[in-house]
Amino acid sequence: MRVNRLLNQIGRTQRLAIVHELKRSSGLPVKELARRLGMSYMGVKQHCVELHRDGYLDTWRNPKPVGRPEMLYRLTRKAHELFPVQSHEMLLAVLAAARQLYGASAPGKLLFVHFREKAEAYRARLRGETLGERAGWLARLREREGCMATIEEGPPLRLIERHSPMAELFAAYPEAEGMERELFERVLEARVRRSSRTTGGLYECAFEIG
Fold it and tell me: Nearest 5 degrees, angle CA 65-CA 20-CA 169?
């Protein structure tokens, strides 16, 4: 598999740790990476240079109010393939067949049922008395699915996801993004606003809650 080849190319556990830390950000300097990972500056720098050489990282300069711009490392599109993706080849084929057999609205109806059932599965596992506690629990459930989910307390309260295992489905059926937002509203029993952006290998989807 291509992912296995990529993992073999990256090799060391420390390099994977760097890739995972960068996935949770919009870009970090070597000094901050070293602090977060408990590694030496030069060790992290060497790994970043090698990952950059192999096409997993690129660099950009972040202007600062005073002094020279800060050089940050961030992931490339190639690095995206290292993270879990739910294979939707069969699902997409079924949805296409449903459209052909039952009309243009059929895929949307099937997706609606899917997201409704997924919401109920979340609700059965969710814990917490307050909205913040429920959002934190939902973030943990999404993290287990590979969404790289974290909570920003705010205000406003936001659930941030740095990876989308369902990217192929959303690309083929953009209306599914709205269904995912409604899933969050149903689970959390609160208003949710969804926004997403992709830049190179960086993906971020923010769910603003309440």
Answer: 105
